[in-house]
């Protein structure tokens, strides 16, 4: 799996766990709703760490929690 796909899946998981919509995340994080949608839809080849950090703040988690997922294990990611 590509890194942007892993980020997309992880963000979707976290939103589902919190029963949160993309709009609610936008309101809490300040990350534009269109950007959140583009991340979910894998429209970007890469996502800036700053954006992930801002979304984490909106989700109420640390960036370490975001990446603490089997999705980001090296064996699961394409080079």
UniProtKB/TrEMBL annotation:
Listed InterPro entries: Cro/C1-type_HTH, Lambda_DNA-bd_dom_sf
SUPFAM superfamilies assigned: lambda repressor-like DNA-binding domains (SSF47413)
Pfam hit, one: HTH_26
Molecular functions (GO terms): DNA binding
Residue ranges annotated for the HTH cro/C1-type domain, each copy included: 11-66
Domain of life according to the entry: Bacteria
Name used for this protein in its record: HTH cro/C1-type domain-containing protein
Lineage: Bacteria, Bacillati, Bacillota, Clostridia, Eubacteriales
């Amino acid at each position: 799996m590509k890194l942007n796909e892993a980020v997309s899946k992880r963000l979707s998981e976290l939103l589902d766990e919190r029963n949160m919509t993309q709009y609610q995340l936008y309101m809490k994080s300040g990350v534009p709703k269109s950007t959140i949608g583009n991340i979910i839809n894998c429209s970007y080849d890469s996502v800036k760490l700053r954006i992930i950090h801002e979304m984490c703040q909106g989700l109420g988690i640390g960036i370490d929690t975001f990446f603490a997922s089997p999705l980001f294990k090296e064996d699961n990611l394409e080079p």
